[in-house]
Amino acid sequence: MTTLFKPQEIIIEKSVLNCDLTRRITSRIDAEKMIIDDAEAFIKNSGQPIETIQAKSILLARQRGPFMRFCPGTPRHICCLYRNLDVVEGCDLNCSYCILQCYIHSPYITIYCNTDDMFNELDDAFTKRPDEFFRVGSGELSDSLTFDYYTELGVDLVKFFAPYKNAIIELKSKNVHVDKILSLSHGHRSVVSWSLNSEFIHRTEERETPDIPSRIEAAKKVQKAGYWLGFHFDPLIYYENWETDYKKVIDSLFAAIDPQNIAWISLGALRYPPELDRAIRRNHPDSKIVLGELLPGIDKKYRYFRQIRIDMFRALYRHIRQYSGDVFVYLCMESDEVWNKAFGWSPGNSAILKKLLDQRVMLSE
Amino acid sequence: MIQKKFLRLPISGIIVSDSPFFIPSLEPLEALTLSLQKLGQLTPVYVQSYKQSYRLVTGFKRLDALKQTSMEYIDCYLLSQTISDLALFEFVLEENRVQRDFNVIEISHILARLSETYKLPRRSIIDNYLPLLGLGRREKLYQVYISLRKLPLAWKRALIEDVVSPELAWKMSKAEEESRALFLDMVFILRLNKKLQKEFWHLLRDIASSKACRIGEIIQQTDFQNILHHIKLTPQQKASKVKDHLIRLRYPQYSQVQDRLDGLLKKFKLPPTVRIQPSPFLSDDIFHFYFRAKTTEEYIEHLDRLNHLAEKEKIDQLFELVK
Ligand code: SF4
Predict the structure, then answer these.
(1) Which CATH number fits domain A9-361: 3.30.870.10, 3.40.50.2000, 3.40.190.10, 3.80.30.30?
(2) Residue B189 placed within a domain
(3) What is the ipTM score, two decimals?
């Protein structure tokens, strides 16, 4: 079990002092507080090194740009056309492979507290475009539930999405702080999902996260509360016993969870830009993941040699199929060719994949 | 302006031990000794009164070179006793700098002196002294340069001769002595430029980590040594073979497929005007076919040749490889 993150200091941008979320967080965390005029200028002048994601302080700030943005995707790869909700940036769980090590250019965990603006923006988008389906997730620049103990953002999001027919929120996490969402009336407009990995990778690369059985246990509770569930085997990491180890996790998953309640399962192999290679070696010198057969692609990102990826996807896909013929399994950021070779079929393009995923969770009229 | 007074002092009376101004250097003394023998001492050294005698402030090399000659006296400028050691050290840096740039090992000793003898904070050294020494105000540069003085002699010489880069030497300083020595030998044998040194080092580092062995053990393997000491190959040819060898060790599954592909293409016996090329690192199942033709006959000839390969199901084998 992980310990709760205890920030050393809370830095508050003046303009969010009166936001509900600011009040909620400051009333629950006993830490030094500092009020600042402008968050961007403060980060720029703080002189703190930003090379590690082991942030010690929380910054409560105003989101100046839009909260909701399309996931950037990769050219020539099939993307699920997800929308990211940029409400928290940064994480306390310190996974060795975490992409935030090179995405986030702040030494603080930033929580954007002007959530009224966020909900207005979302409502505006959902009501102005009723024919479009919005799959939104808050787990791209953070872990959706890791700070929920203080923020209850998960609660707010579940409640907010409940009445919308054309939108769904995915709370993607490795954490187990689910108690507060269990009794909510969610209207099937939330998917609570977990990133899963093998026990070995949890012990070596995700050391500060709750273990795999605890995550599955949390998923079981959420299943009981009638939510849609999602599971992301991402990043799959290649090592000597990968096949047996990942299959064991799939076995325990299906022993606890009814496939009918699973909205989707994704598989994604370890991939990263060159900057992350350097960050992993610097921040996690004991990590062995950079020693895999990762080769640069046309987008300069490192990926496992194609055959390795296909073998991993194929083996795990077949194993999942032994438990369920119709649970929706998709690949994250892979080409049409890899889809075909690993799964024997491909959505062909991003738009079709989006449609298939949307259909999984759309409410029938 | 520093006040000074000219003196001629006996060489034996100058104190040099434990000097806070000494910057160790590996620069050879021969040329300086020869010049002193021929022309005498052209530039006086600087000294300061110290414990009823004189301590040397600048001119350590000149004094060493003078000791190699039959001269008994040294021309000096006497500096005031009121100047602080740090101010004098800055004067030493300035005096040396106008004559020539410091080499990397001297820079390393200067940084250590500022930190250990003069107890200056790291930030102040980075901001105030790195630019004086021709370096940017970067923490990383400080870290790299200050460590170089601890390297073995062969590495220091390679650095001074600009054969290897300070960054690589710093990275290698974490490896054991034997690995470092073997790596440097390899650099000289293969005449590796700095880019290749870095590439080879990265490959060796990762192979050693995944096999839980030392870099030196990999270099000492028979296959590796056979390439290094092959009598018929040029350094460039050896370097290319060593690189292939390292890539095979680092990326075994990819190399296996690549080797099979190379073997197959060899069997196709294509002329140099026809080329079949996979995507970089076999990242998909696509092959690119290129050919060059000057005449219609040549064009038809190339097409025939490729069609012949297809008829004999040889092209199938190619696609089979990346299935
Ligand atoms: S839980 Fe996710 S966001 Fe947090 S450190 Fe791990 S990979 Fe990064």
Answers:
(1) 3.80.30.30
(2) yes
(3) 0.87
